[in-house]
């Protein structure tokens, strides 16, 4: 029971309280770039969940069984980047083969997951917080879910804003920035959660 | 020393494993892309103007190959591009209907325009017409802040000494960016062969539009052109003559009959030249026939 409670706690923490986009300000590029359409936001969200979970798994294994025994933890960043870049490449190839429509919708943002700081962020945070293997994977999964949640919320809002009557100078990016700010303020409310 | 070796070895091994893995995956998940798309994309002008109706040159190239889009949609590329695309696709080239921008109103240039006040705001048509419907006495006319000239990506619009906007029909690609930029919808894209157009967009009653027009080319809705047009291409809509270019045969009769010269026919001279040329030709042929007849008559005798 205690284990389930811990998992739930971690889920709430990663999705709401310590949301990667709105509280840690990681992964802002796809948050603004891919949130124009709900469909592509959904696809991007799924891709990021997958990559973050996989990245957490592999980077934890590499750190624990390769870098720590050899006392070369200073190679953390470069080894993680190498792993994430290869993973993203693999995901890109698989998506291009299996779901061409999704591949087209994601466009340039799929290879950009490589430089999505949320992915590297979750890998490094896992190590810093000294999570166990299972919890590192779960942190990656819930972090990805939190990212997808705000991305999809943002896409929904922006799809409605497309039809809203706005002054020409506010249309597009300016109003998106204001919405992003308001969402961050709303998520700030979660930081008061106590368990 | 051992740390140095370990770090090099670790990263080297990781890189090798990932590289081999990706190489294997790229073989397994290989996707064929039609080489035609790339070829067409290279031929297109890459101005990404959007005149074809697709988001950019790459999207248009893809649409041609995969969805069978028309190959004559690229206005900036012109006939040259159409020919090349036709070669790649193995189709017959169909000539593009070259369109050019025509400007319906120029208010007679800066010197002649009747003004209500002098505008000293930011240099933008959109801003100028926000100030009590613009500085012009006419509520429909050009306000000379040149949003259209700034919108032109092909340097096809120039401003003359009197502030009039001149469209360079050689450079104009018909992309329509200026027409979108004009807040008063004074610019229309018309086929280069049918450039006869009305120099007025005023929906005011004839007496008012004539009084405020600096160019003295206001349409006073007399309907003479409507009556004169042999193919019923002109209609009077809300005090303004409108030409239907699908019907227009470019005879120039409306321009001749208009009492305020509100209909501009830039093709008149070209037509006259052509007419004269055909006349000379016809006479030459006539002469030849007569000579031949005379000759035959002589031989008969």
Count all strands of chain A and give the number. Answer: 0
What is the fold-level CATH name, i.e. the topology of the domain at 98-193 in chain B?
Answer: Alpha-Beta Plaits
Amino- and carboxy-terminal Cα gap of chain A: 16 Å
- The helical percent of chain A reads over 70%
CATH C-level label of the domain at 98-193 in chain B:
Alpha Beta
The N- and C-terminal alpha carbons of chain B lie at a distance of 123 Å
Q: Supply the number of helical segments of chain A.
A: 9
**Main beta sheet of chain B: strand number and arrangement?**
2 strands, antiparallel
**Rg measurement of chain A, Å:** 18 Å
Number of beta strands of chain B: 8
Q: Beta-strand percentage of chain B?
A: 5-15%
Q: What oligomeric state is this?
A: heterodimer
Derived from helix and strand composition plus strand pairing, the structural class of chain A reads mainly alpha
List the helices and strands and how they pair.
The complex is a heterodimer of chains A (195) and B (301).
Chain A: H1 2-17, H2 28-33, H3 38-67, H4 76-98, H5 100-106, H6 109-112, H7 117-128, H8 133-163, H9 173-188
Helix pairs in contact in A: 1-8, 3-4, 3-7, 3-8, 4-5, 4-7, 7-8, 8-9
Chain B: H1 2-28, H2 35-43, H3 57-67, H4 78-89, E1 99-103, H5 109-112, H6 125-128, H7 147-151, E2 157-159, E3 165-167, H8 177-181, E4 187-191, E5 197-198, H9 206-212, H10 224-228, E6 234-236, E7 241-243, H11 253-257, E8 263-264, H12 268-300
Antiparallel strand pairs in B: 1-4, 2-3, 5-8, 6-7
Helix pairs in contact in B: 2-3, 2-4
């Amino acid at each position: 029971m205690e284990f389930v409670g811990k998992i739930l706690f971690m889920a709430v923490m990663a999705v709401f309280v310590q949301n990667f986009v709105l509280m840690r300000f990681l992964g802002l590029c796809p948050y603004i770039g891919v949130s124009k359409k709900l469909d592509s936001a959904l696809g991007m969200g799924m891709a990021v969940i997958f990559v973050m979970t996989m990245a957490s798994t592999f980077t934890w294994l590499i750190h624990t069984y390769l870098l720590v025994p050899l006392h070369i933890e200073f190679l953390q960043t470069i080894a993680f980047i190498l792993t994430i870049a290869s993973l993203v490449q693999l995901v890109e190839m698989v998506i291009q083969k299996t779901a061409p429509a999704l591949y087209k919708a994601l466009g340039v943002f799929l290879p950009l997951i490589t430089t999505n700081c949320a992915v590297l962020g979750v890998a490094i945070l896992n190590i810093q917080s000294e999570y166990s293997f299972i919890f590192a994977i779960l942190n990656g999964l819930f972090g990805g879910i939190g990212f997808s949640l705000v991305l999809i919320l943002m896409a929904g809002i922006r799809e409605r804003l497309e039809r809203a009557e706005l002054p020409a100078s506010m249309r597009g990016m300016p109003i998106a920035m204001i919405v992003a700010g308001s969402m961050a303020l709303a998520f700030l409310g979660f930081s008061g959660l106590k368990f | 020393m051992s740390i140095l070796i370990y770090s090099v070895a670790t990263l080297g091994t990781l890189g090798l494993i990932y590289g081999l893995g990706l190489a294997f995956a790229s073989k397994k998940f290989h996707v064929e892309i039609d080489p035609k798309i790339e070829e067409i994309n290279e031929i297109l002008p890459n101005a990404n103007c959007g005149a074809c109706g697709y988001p950019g040159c790459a999207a248009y190239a893809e649409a041609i190959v995969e969805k069978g889009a028309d190959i004559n949609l690229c206005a900036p590329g012109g006939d040259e591009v159409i020919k090349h695309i036709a070669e790649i696709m193995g189709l017959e080239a169909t000539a593009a209907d070259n369109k050019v921008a025509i400007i319906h109103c120029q208010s007679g240039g800066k010197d002649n325009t009747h003004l209500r006040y002098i505008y000293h705001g930011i240099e933008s048509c959109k801003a100028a017409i926000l100030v009590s419907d613009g500085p012009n006495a006419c509520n429909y006319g050009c306000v000379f802040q040149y949003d259209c000239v700034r919108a032109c990506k092909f340097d096809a619009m120039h401003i003359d000494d009197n502030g009039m906007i001149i469209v360079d029909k050689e450079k104009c690609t018909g992309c329509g960016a200026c027409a979108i930029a004009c807040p008063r919808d004074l610019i229309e894209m018309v086929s280069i062969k049918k450039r006869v157009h009305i120099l007025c967009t005023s929906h005011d009653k004839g007496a008012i539009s004539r009084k405020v027009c600096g160019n003295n080319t206001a349409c006073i809705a007399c309907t003479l052109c409507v009556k004169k047009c042999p193919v019923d291409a002109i209609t009077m809509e809300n005090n303004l003559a409108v030409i239907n270019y699908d019907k227009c045969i470019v005879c120039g009769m409306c321009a001749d009959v208009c009492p305020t010269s509100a209909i501009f026919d830039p093709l008149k001279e070209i037509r006259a030249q052509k007419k004269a040329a055909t006349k000379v030709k016809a006479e030459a042929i006539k002469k030849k026939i007569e000579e031949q007849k005379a000759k035959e008559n002589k031989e008969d005798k």
